[in-house]
Every structure is written in C-alpha cells, then in structure tokens.
Write a structure and sequence with these properties.
This protein is mostly helical. It contains 9 helices and no strands.
Length: about 210
C-alpha cells in the first residue's frame, strides 16, 4: 500500500515535536529512503524559475549527483556529514518539515501511483538514477549566464523525475524524460552557438592583428 510521503512526514513532526533533535540523514532513514527524493525536490525548487542563481547551482548539482550515484548503486541514501549529520534547529525543523508537508500535499494532487510496476524494476531504478546524475551534472556546470534557462531546464527535469519516483507515478515520469531531452538539446545547441561565435571572433581578431603582407 502506497503511503503519501506527506503523511509520513506529518507523523514524524507530530511524534518528535518541534524540540526533538533530527538530522537530515535520520530523516532519510525514517522515510525508508523516499526522503532522498524529497531532498532532491527541495534542492531543485530554487532553480525551477527563470531567474539564475550564480554559484549555487554547482554545489546543489554536486549534492544531487552524489545522492543519485548512491541510488544507482543501491546504497542507503546518505548526505555528506557537513549537511546530513547536523541536528536541525527547532525553527528550521518546523520550517523544513512543515513546509515540506504543505508542498508534498500540493504535489500529491497531481502525482500519484499510476503504471507503477515497471518503476520498481532494478533496471528502471538504475536508469532513472543515471538520468538524475546527468541532469545534476548539467546543473553543476559553470555555464555563463549568457545562455538563459541554463539552470531552469535541468532543475525542472530533476524536480519532475524525483517527484515521479517518490510518488511511483509511471505516467508523470515521461514528462520528466521529455524535460530532460529538452534540457540536453537546448544546452547542447546553446553551447555550440557560443563556441562557434567565439571561434569566429578569434579568427576575425587574428585577421585584424595579422601583419599586412
């Protein structure tokens, strides 16, 4: 029986209260690994807007990539010590868990278990984890802001794939696949255009500064 993650988080918050110590790694353990997708969702949300966040994408992309690698290898979800082992302060705990419950309840209005059997196959888990790794790598690239939506497209792809895996939605995940393809094609074309423009500029400068024969 599929239990919405919002209900699990609400029970954790009610059982521990606001003052109880809780780390992100403990949260991952107590949500039986599904909290891994919640962490990915929370990390990708700031990039699901067209407004670029310079500098932040590299760190966030690296963390998501690390989680995706562990998912692909079938290892227990675990955040780095500096991020996952520190107890959440009561105020932050209330904000993070309370806000997550509200966000998940909104997500669960659209994402729900549909066509879920194949999502549980080991090959599907590994393939989706590799896809998340690729999108996280694109997010982490220090792409100059001259390419608009360079963080937005990978961020949306990560969000959709993570939501689909968390809620076992075998239909929505195809939207995540489409968003991933769009991100790869768009950034590939954008990078190609920039490289071509730089090459042409370099050639023109060489001609300009070249000594007359």
């Amino acid at each position: 029986m599929h239990e919405p993650l919002s209900q699990r988080l609400a029970r954790i918050l009610e059982a521990d209260g606001v003052s109880g110590d809780l780390t992100l790694n403990q949260l991952l353990l107590r949500t039986e690994g599904r909290g891994l997708y919640l962490v990915m969702i929370l990390l990708s949300v700031p990039f699901c807007t067209p407004i670029p966040l310079p500098g932040l994408s590299t760190v966030v992309g690296a963390v998501i990539m690390l989680l995706a690698i562990r998912l692909a290898l079938g290892l227990p979800p675990h955040l780095p010590r500096f991020m996952g082992e520190k107890p959440l302060p009561p105020g932050l705990k209330r904000t993070v868990l309370g806000g997550s419950v509200k966000m998940l309840r909104w997500i669960e209005r659209f994402a729900r278990p549909r066509k879920t059997q194949w999502l549980g196959w080991p090959a599907a888990r590994v393939g989706n984890a590799v896809l998340l790794m690729g999108m996280a790598a694109l997010l982490a690239l220090p792409i100059p802001p001259v390419i608009p939506f360079s963080n937005f497209l990978p961020g949306v792809a990560i969000f959709l794939v993570a939501v689909s895996m968390m809620e076992e939605d075998g239909l929505m995940i195809w939207v995540g696949y489409a968003a991933s393809i769009i991100a790869v094609v768009y950034l590939g074309l954008g990078a190609g255009i920039i490289v071509t423009a730089i090459t042409k500029l370099y050639q023109e400068l060489l001609k300009y500064f070249q000594a007359p024969q």
